[in-house]
TrEMBL record, chain A:
Xref: PANTHER family: TRNA N6-ADENOSINE THREONYLCARBAMOYLTRANSFERASE, TRNA THREONYLCARBAMOYLADENOSINE BIOSYNTHESIS PROTEIN TSAB
NCBIfam families the record matches: T6A_YeaZ
Name this protein carries in UniProt: Peptidase M22, glycoprotease
Species this protein is from: Paucilactobacillus vaccinostercus DSM 20634
Alphabetized GO MF terms: peptidase activity
Keywords tagged on the record: Hydrolase, Protease
Gene3D superfamilies referenced in this protein's UniProt entry, alphabetically: 3.30.420.40
Length: 244, 337
């Protein structure tokens, strides 16, 4: 099975093509520039290097968020449209899991928490734990304050590894938290996603059944929507888009 | 090589997701438009992040329907045309990403199209174009007079210095309690009223073709609020008529002035606000009287708003002109002619 895997959830962009679980070619960029410029040229180049045609692809695997809204949308739009137009399978994988599943494998059963900075002292977080050859979800992915995350670790009293987008404020909060002795912060190089890992996660997963409905996991509604819902409880419609 | 001249076009610059198949640049085989207006009405205007989220919900459905309805396959297509600006960056990116994916997957040339060129080419579905030509483009985001010496050459003669005309309608609409977008309702009220307030005509006497609508907007809002403070209720139809008269006067006067300076064979009226009946009637009357040799082409009402068919029409010409983008094409929110 020829797989194309795409992750542009945050600053890094990672694209891989694999034949089953065999890596054929991969490129990772860590520019803070617009992914829109580099996604398709990278795909084009990797597929050409492999000597494949677009029509040779069997499956698209995409990191579907959370992350930067725009970043995730570029990958998901590209992946969804490719799957639609080539009539092949599409698989969405949590962007947190792309990093978390890989890192947790190296942590010998110790839970690994992945965080993406969601601004204003909030994070998108998820926890993974490798047990008896299985990857378990230690913490379901969610949008939460970093404070709440530290408290959760304290309550569970388990030693964990933490990896992701740390800023100085997060480091400071970890240092001052009662959970601080439970947390091992992994170096930044662990936090770069690899689309090869994404391809492997997506290879055995169930493909999307309703392709048109496939959208990113933003894990957070927009501010405008949140304010509107507060003022109009129970008024939410099924669809706000109609054909004219 | 496909024998038929078919362009698959994408448009997602604001709050409509649209995909269309156009034959020979002037025949619409399909024009699927998914509008988000009901969503943004809740917020009183387009919220960019909400718009981007709706686009990604709609894009593949619109694509599949456009091909189905046109009864064509990818093998029949000649090129993929895409709006890459101007517009909201997050919205544009959905269409751009999708169009690139389709072009790459099927080895089709990718043709970048300026959204404003698209609006002009909506008139191509009415008449064949003859040059030189001028266009009055009026929409929620743009108000400009464009001169086209030849096919697909665009020179902006004048543009708005502040609010676009459609934006001004929405802002005074908010004061009158009209839900977004306000244009159609204000237009209807205006037809039932009279210009009794004589709002200012901005820059009408200036020796350029630029527009300004913020002064008119302020005058309108002041008149409304002063009356409110005095406990008076002003006739909404007269308010609408006075506002619309001022907008139309300025748009038409500037256009006529430009026609004097730049002799053209055709004048095109296009853009979302081109659906305004007051503007259509007045421009028709004045152009017929003062410039009998100029043919006025009004974009069809259902193609005044954003749609992909107009991008397909412009894209067909751009394709013939050899315009191509590679896979690094990015959205250009501030794109200008």
């Amino acid at each position: 099975m020829k797989i194309l895997a795409i992750d542009t959830s945050n600053h890094p962009l990672s694209i891989a093509i694999t034949d089953d679980d065999q890596l054929i070619a991969t490129t990772t960029l860590n520019l803070t520039k617009n992914h829109s410029i580099y996604v398709m040229p990278t795909i084009e180049k990797l597929v050409a290097i492999a000597g494949w045609q677009p029509a040779d692809l069997d499956r698209i695997v995409v990191a579907k968020g959370p992350g930067s809204y725009t970043g995730v949308r570029i990958a998901v739009t590209t992946a969804k449209t490719l799957a639609d137009t080539l009539q092949i399978d599409l698989v969405g994988v949590s962007s947190l899991k792309v990093i978390g599943a890989h890192v947790a494998q190296l942590q010998a059963g110790r839970p690994t928490i992945v965080i993406f900075n969601a601004r204003r002292n909030n994070v998108f977080a998820a926890g993974y734990q490798a047990q008896q050859g299985q990857m378990n979800e230690w913490l379901a992915q969610q949008h939460m304050s970093f404070e709440d995350l530290l408290q959760l670790v304290e309550e569970r009293q388990e030693a964990v590894s933490m990896v992701g987008e740390f800023d100085a404020q997060f480091d400071e909060q970890v240092a001052q938290s009662p959970a601080h002795s439970l947390i091992t912060r992994l170096p930044a190089n662990y936090a770069i996603p690899s689309a090869y890992d994404l391809a492997i996660l997506g290879r055995s997963a169930q493909p999307v059944t309703q392709l048109d409905e496939f959208v990113p996991d933003y894990l957070r509604i927009t501010e405008a929507e949140a304010n509107w819902q507060k003022k109009h409880p129970g008024e939410l419609k099924q669809s706000y888009v109609r054909e004219v | 090589m496909a024998s038929r001249n078919l362009i698959l076009a994408f448009e997602s610059s604001c709050d409509e997701t649209s995909v269309s198949v156009v034959e020979d640049g002037h025949k619409i085989l399909s024009n699927i438009i998914a509008t988000q207006i009901d969503s943004h009405q809740r917020f009183g205007g387009v919220v960019p992040e909400v718009a981007s989220r709706h686009h990604i919900e709609q894009i593949t459905r619109c694509l599949d329907e456009a091909l189905d309805q046109a009864n064509v396959t990818y093998d029949d297509l000649k090129a993929v045309a895409i709006t890459y600006g101007p517009g909201l960056v997050g919205s544009l990116l959905v269409g751009v990403s999708a169009a690139k994916a389709v072009a790459w997957a099927h080895h089709l040339p990718l043709v970048p199209v300026n959204h404003m060129a698209g609006h002009i080419y909506a008139a191509r579905f009415v008449n064949e174009f003859v040059f030189p030509q001028m266009a009055l483009l009026v929409s929620g985001g743009h108000t400009e007079i464009v001169y086209m010496k030849d096919e697909y050459s665009f020179e902006i003669l004048g543009e708005t210095r502040d609010d676009a005309a459609g934006e001004a309608y929405d802002k005074i609409g908010r004061v009158l309690g009209v839900s977004y977008p306000a244009g159609k309702t204000i237009d209807e009220w205006a037809h039932a009223g009279h210009d009794t307030f004589h709002f200012p005509r901005a820059m009408e006497k200036d020796h350029n073709y630029d527009f300004s609508f913020s002064g008119l907007k302020s005058a309108f809002i002041n008149t409304f609020h002063n009356a409110e403070q005095r406990g008076e209720t002003l006739d909404r139809n007269d308010l609408a008529a006075s506002f619309q008269q001022s907008v139309v006067d300025v748009l038409v006067e500037k256009t006529l002035k430009a026609l004097q300076q730049y002799p053209v064979k055709q004048l095109i009226l296009a853009g979302g606000v081109a659906a305004n009946q007051g503007l259509r009637e007045r421009l028709e009357a004045d152009v017929t009287r003062q410039f009998p040799t100029v043919t006025l082409i009004k974009a069809p009402l259902k193609l005044c708003g954003d749609n992909a068919a107009m991008i397909g029409a412009a894209g067909e010409v751009a394709y013939r002109k050899g315009q191509r983008a590679d896979m690094s094409l990015n959205a250009m929110p501030g794109l200008s002619f």
